[in-house]
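step 4 of 6: structure.
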Amino acid sequence: MDPLLVAEAAINGILLGGVLALLALGLNLIFGVVDIVWIAYVELVMLGMYAVYWLVTLWAWPVVLAGMAAVGLVAILGILVHLLIIAPILSSPPVNQLLATGGLLFFLQSFATFLWATDHRSLRLALPILEVGGMFLSFARLLAFAVSLLAMLGLYLFLTRTYIGTAIRAVSQDREAIALMGVDARKVYIVTSGVGGAMAGLAAALLIIQYSVHPYFGAAFGPLTFMIVVLGGLGNMFGAVVGSLLMSEVISVGGIITSTEMAYVVAFVLFIVAMFVRPEGILSRRE
Amino acid sequence: MLEVSSVTAGYGEFTALWDVNLVVNAGEAVAVVGPNGAGKTTLMRVISGLVRVRAGEVRLEGRSLGAEPAHGIVARGIAHVPEGRRIFPKLTVEENLKMGAFLPAARRRYAGTVARVYELFPVLAERRRQRAGTLSGGEQQMLAIGRALMSGPKLILLDEPSLGLAPVMVLRLFDLIRRVREEGYTILIVEQNVRQVLSLADRAYLLEVGRIRVEGRAADLADQDFVRQAYVGL
């Protein structure tokens, strides 16, 4: 095995991990605050990817502008999902909540198939491949990673430096006490769903420059995102980032050493083992 | 300032308060004492909107709090320091205080109020970058009171502030509550530590199984035989 290839795969793993971390953080944020797992979260990413694709191919929008539009559109979509589907079932048994957001997943997949068929659609951007010390790195991936890092920094500042961001963290710690601060929890839920949607929209813009979109895009990234969130510990933001990097490394490096399929098998087996050893997530503290 | 008139309230089938009447005048410290399960905490939760009244009415400065949700009652000027403190353990001390000043009006006055809270509780200033969950019980109680002051309330509800604190800390805490009083706040306090609270309050109510049994000046109440025997332990 050429060590240069492994090094290249390791770097690609980190780069992929950045975008996965966006998804894991968005899903985790919503779970931590609203206490509901959005099974259909990556389906929102799929819709965001279509949004960029159509804006660019039909209306000839610049990709950057289309990407920014996707962030806004999916943020609005996130708020609508909350208001129309989540809000009415907030106090229902968890199994009903899973059924409702799971139902949304099938609805969105079928809806996309109905509208756009199952074709794989790609932007076919001619982005350069950079050669660094004998390794070949995709510019699209580097760009996606850099933007992901900036977005994570932005999210961190939002959650720690603003009143509403601090309230978002406080809600998940004590739902009743936050009302005594004069905070309307329903508004916090709406803001959180919008931020979670915006993260999905940004991830969509960063994924469409690397991958083609099709109605079942979520079938590949969805389970991976859930696995990462559970691995890092539900609600644990730092764990989500670590889990993303870990999983994308296993998939990327494992894929070079064996095959992509085998790498996914290894990743899922690792996940199962980790769940036996630390069911609360790898970074959980014992209390 | 606060009028609770003929309030009946409870949880589901269970009725915790029966026809309760209570008044707090501006500038007063009023105590509600009584045994465990008398409905003291429910009374506080009714006033701050966490529990809905089934019959009767709560009025603040003559206006009904009827349909106001809990987060709206803070804006009307009532700050509730709940039983068990309920600070946000993973936020820092300062972030907890910031949450107390969440409302726009309180936000504008943040710098001034936070300086006063730190003056009142210097230990909070020392620990302001520390996670609130790492504070001692007494410090957490100070934080809970400081957080309530941050909203700039007209009335403060204190629910069992001495709960779970060491005896020395209880004395210190009551001294601090006296200082909060001297700042001009109106206080309604619920306590099991009857002797301490009666020495602090102007007037007091004795609540038993959901009904007001006795009311009067705190000093008179402390002198009544059955109160002394049952609750003060003298």
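step 5 of 6: annotate
 - The beta strands of chain A are 129-132, 135-138.
 - The first helix of chain A runs from residue 3 to 34.
step 6 of 6: archive
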